[in-house]
Amino acid sequence: MMSRLVLPLLVAVLGVIPVGAAKVEHAKPVAGFTLTDAAGKKWTLADQKAKVVVVAFLATECPMSNGYLPTLADIATKYAAKGVTVVGVFPDTETTPVQAAAHAKEYKLPFRVFADREQASVVSLGAKVTPEVVVLDEKFVVRYRGRIDDGFTARLKPKTIVARNDLSTAIDELLAGKAVSEPEAKAFGCPITIAEKKPAANETAVTFYKDVLPVFIANCQSCHRPGQAGPFSLLTYKQATRWGELCVEEVHAKRMPPWKPAPNTLLAGERSLPASAMKVLEKWVAQGMPEGDPKDAPPATKFDDNWTLGEPDLVLESPSDVTIAAKGRDMFRVMVFPTNLTEDKDVVAVEVRPGNPRVVHHTVNLVDRTGAARKLQAAAAAEAQPNDADRGPGYPVKMGFGFVPDTSMILGGWAPGMLPKKLPDGVALRLPKGSDLCIQIHYHRTGKEETDRTKVGIYFAKKPATERFTSIPVAGLFWSIPAGDKDFVVDRAWRTLEDVTAYRLIPHMHLLGKDIELFATLPGEKERSLIRIPVWDYNWQEQYDLKEPLKLPKGTILRVRATFDNSAENPRNPSSPPRIVRLGEQTTDEMCFVFMGVSSTAAFPHVMVPVSKRQYQITQATAYPSFRGRSRSTQARRRTPPRQPNTPDHSCCRMPSTMRRFGVPPLLR
């Protein structure tokens, strides 16, 4: 009888004890360590009298570490008067105290920083990546370790919405005398390399100078060198050993080199790493990253940071710098460059030269003949204040250009590593007199205030154009994407009414996109895939050039198929909880297009008409009798889900007003 009463009482008492409270009495303080700053002043953990000590592990070349510096600065300022001490530690063996101090000054950090080349703090606190924070109580017992907040789902994979501020929550709970509710949360960032003696190379070893450096020269150094888009350099042996393990991880995840399309023999400029090169990196890291003999090194590449195609015929530059604030969401800004042309010109190439490659992620280029962009820029200038965090010429947009563009005047875009290419002789885009060139620039924030002044070079045709170059939108149209639907399929087909020649492809979706593919069925032939992006990432939109121009005769069927994820499981979903998402140009709307850069001798080469589902099936069955209502490529990859109830079939197009809004040509509607 007594046991029946005592057991429930014991359970009830234990139930009111905070989680982790039992561990508090028995937890041991961490091993002490001493750090020295650039001025020679020492900082010893055991001497700290704070209620809470936050040790933040940082790295000068890690983009995630630098991106979180404004957040750490705000936390240090907010809690300074409440007995909380924040210190920054740079555990890289190559970072000197002077470099650490200069980095802190550059980012205006309000807390002390130290270079720990001996890695005593790493041994004591067990940090694995940068940025990572370790929170200690007044007895130097670890009460929290891990991420600063839940803003990332993986390295360089940000969420749209930050739901939990782990570091601030842990500090608040400790100051309130409570146990930390979540004492550990996985941090994502750049790995901390533990100092160790590199092995001597033997005859069978993969060495840096003989084997790895040629891989970096051919695939990485165009971006990973000083002043370019890569956040760290891969020019020297010391730099390579610092980032070697990270390079292997990024290559395995297919995040680097950045190349989103599935293997495709039609596309030029592929940047994905060859399998043989991947094996070289894997073996080198597995063997301890031996250096080898510097005499085996290939000649250093001389990079030309001037105009790739030579001096342009017309160079456009903004009158002043754009200032990008240290923190906040990525910025999209449209720069308007008046061409001031007094006569029409034929253009064969456009080259974008970012003034600050560290912050310019990619651009989308467009010719505006209406003056709409110029008016938006003037309105933004009239409302601008000198103390605006983001300021300068141009005007901010969430996505798109802020007005309904003429999609036939899209001039492609730019992304890191992309090289401009001239159109063939006799093919050119007409640049009307008095028109403006609009460049939508996607700016990354780096954790400190940055400036940029991007230039644009335009190359005019040397011979008369016999074919006009333009862009045609192969549209995947829909009414809306239901909330919670993680596999919403859009599938649309169109038939060309003129002969055209295709040169480049530009897929476009927003944040909910999962995958997208463009198919072509030439008259009398089987359907084939022109481009497939199996894992869509809005942050890596590019222009993909074809190796050889592709003739698309009159009657060619172009079909775009895409999948969207509007579920709560999608970390990029801008709405929490998910909501119905409609076709639109705002960040929280969605789109589905593959813009094709084509040429034609016809007056209206962009004319297409919709193809009904029945017509499409008949065409495929004629090309190959085994067709049963879907393409072989789609059939082999997975079964096509049934048409969503709110998605129109191919038999008609019920949204003329929406299509007009996005500049879809009348006959395509």
Question: How is the secondary structure organized here?
Answer:
Blueprint (H helix, E strand, L loop, with lengths): L1 H14 L5 H4 L9 E3 L5 E3 L7 E6 L5 H17 L4 E7 L6 H10 L5 E4 L4 H6 L3 E2 L1 E6 L4 E5 L5 E3 L2 E2 L7 H10 L8 E2 L4 E2 L16 H12 L17 H16 L22 H12 L27 E4 L4 E3 L6 E8 L6 E9 L6 E9 L3 H12 L11 E3 L12 E5 L12 E5 L4 E8 L6 E3 L2 E6 L6 E9 L4 E2 L6 E9 L3 E9 L4 E9 L6 E6 L10 E9 L4 E8 L16 E2 L10 E8 L7 E3 L2 H11 L8 H6 L18 H6 L8
Parallel strand pairs: 3-4, 4-5, 8-11, 20-24
Antiparallel strand pairs: 1-2, 3-7, 6-12, 7-8, 9-10, 13-23, 14-22, 15-18, 15-21, 16-20, 16-23, 17-19, 17-21, 24-33, 25-32, 26-31, 26-34, 27-30, 27-33, 28-29, 28-31
Helix pairs in contact: 7-9, 8-9
Structure in words:
The structure is a single chain. This protein is of the alpha+beta class and about 675 residues long. The chain folds into 4 domains: about 20-190, Glutaredoxin; about 210-295, no CATH class; about 315-465, Jelly Rolls (Sandwich); about 475-660, Jelly Rolls, CATH 2.60.120. About 20% of the residues lie in helices and about 25% in strands. It has an 8-stranded mixed beta sheet with strand order 13-23-16-20-24-33-27-30, with no helix packed on it. It has a 6-stranded mixed beta sheet with strand order 5-4-3-7-8-11. Strands 18-15-21-17-19 form a 5-stranded antiparallel beta sheet, covered by helices on one side. A hairpin with a 4-residue loop joins β7 (about 130-135) and β8. The chain is globular, with a radius of gyration of 28 Å. The model is unreliable at about 1-25 and about 625-669 (pLDDT under 50).
